[in-house]
Amino acid sequence: MRPKVLEILPCIGLTATYVIETMFVSYNNKNSEMENVSYGVLHGSVLGSLLFILYINVIANCLQFARAILFAADTSVSYAHENIEYRFDVMISDLDNLNDCFKAYRLSLNVSKSCYILFPSSNKNAENVLKIGTEPLKKETITKSLCVCIDCTG
Hints:
By secondary structure, the protein is α+β, with helices and mostly antiparallel strands. The chain has helices at residues 2-8, 46-62, 84-104, and strands at 22-23, 26-27, 30-31, 35-36, 67-71, 74-78, 115-117, 131-132, 135-136, 138-140, 142-145, 148-151. The relative contact order is 0.11.
């Protein structure tokens, strides 16, 4: 992640001097040995929040066809096309791009909390499977996004 961080920092006016290279833990008046930090930032730091925003916004740039709706840690990806086979081909391509993007930035996605929904519901018999990496996404008919219930059953 460090090279990616170093690419992003100049975009927001920061330099590498803001990135912590080493750290130690102090507990009960005892200090651990100094260790190298290969990735990540201190929990609760302003830099951590800023980098989260930058990384989350990178997601939209990973998508070639679909549209990303980003709100805090909730992300929705949508694509519309009348031909279901084409729709799946495009989404498979974009989900592959998204997975590559996550790997490049050392981000993780909880696939067990991820799903997809098809509109109209007459597409419910489509045999294609969408995956993130090798993990299949659950196909749902009803889901929630930002406290809004989305139902393809009509």
